[in-house]
Amino acid sequence: MMAVRRALKAVLVDLNGTLHIEDAAVPGAQEALKRLRSSSVIVRFVTNTTKESKQDLLERLKKLEFDISEDEIFTSLTAARSLVEQKQVRPMLLVDDRALPDFKGIQTNDPNAVVIGLAPEHFHYQTLNQAFRLLLDGAPLIAIHKARYYKRKDGLALGPGPFVTALEYATDTSAIVVGKPEKTFFLEALRGTGCEPEEAVMIGDDCRDDVGGAQNAGMLGILVKTGRYLLYAFPNAFPKTGW
């Protein structure tokens, strides 16, 4: 039997692809957030972004004139660090160098675990083979998320999912996934709000990771056609530059 839907008290909002694409705001997103803020609901921001620390992400959002505080953001990096601390392991961190501040204080010498996020500069044979050998020796594989692809200003790009899957296939193991669309990610994001899943809704541009994940956690999901949809519909909306 489905849970009885209660009055809406909390809204989880995806970031990259929903409010912004890299360092460009989605048109109208700032005004939409202001209107949401004017209601009585609690707003939290959830993201699978692993290519920068929470502090760097917050600075990016502030430059784009989004009124967001650090304690309102819950990232998959936060979830991954919590799991590493719970398991008391020393991870080989296959993450972008800009994400390393979120793992400050974590011991990484003589690694006995592999943590993998979006790290294009590390996704080469030698490094992946090192991870492969650790996994063969029994190290757990922790995937910050398994997104198949993500949105950049120059189009879609491979996410960490294909590389996680390659390591799973090569070692005949299964990764522990901590980010969206995992149920525990959404429940952790709601922690501290005093709201139950039946009182919350998730807004995002990914029907699988955002909407599907939220629904599996007992929440409502709202799909917005920004992000990948915006890139398809308005290919010239964002400059074709790196960041």
From TrEMBL:
Which cellular components does GO assign to this protein? cytoplasm
Report which superkingdom the organism of origin falls in: Eukaryota
Q: Which residues form a coiled coil?
A: none
The record's annotation in InterPro entries points to: HAD-like_sf (IPR036412), HAD-SF_hydro_IIA (IPR006357), HAD_sf (IPR023214), LHPP/HDHD2 (IPR006355)
Q: Name one Pfam family in it.
A: Hydrolase_6
**What one GO molecular function would you report for this record?**
metal ion binding
What keywords sit in the KW lines? Magnesium, Metal-binding
| Cofactor dependence | Mg(2+)
What PANTHER family does the entry give? 4-NITROPHENYLPHOSPHATASE-RELATED, HALOACID DEHALOGENASE-LIKE HYDROLASE DOMAIN-CONTAINING PROTEIN 2
Q: Which family does it belong to?
A: Belongs to the HAD-like hydrolase superfamily.
Its name, as the record gives it, is Haloacid dehalogenase-like hydrolase domain-containing protein 2
State the species of origin.
Urocitellus parryii (Arctic ground squirrel)
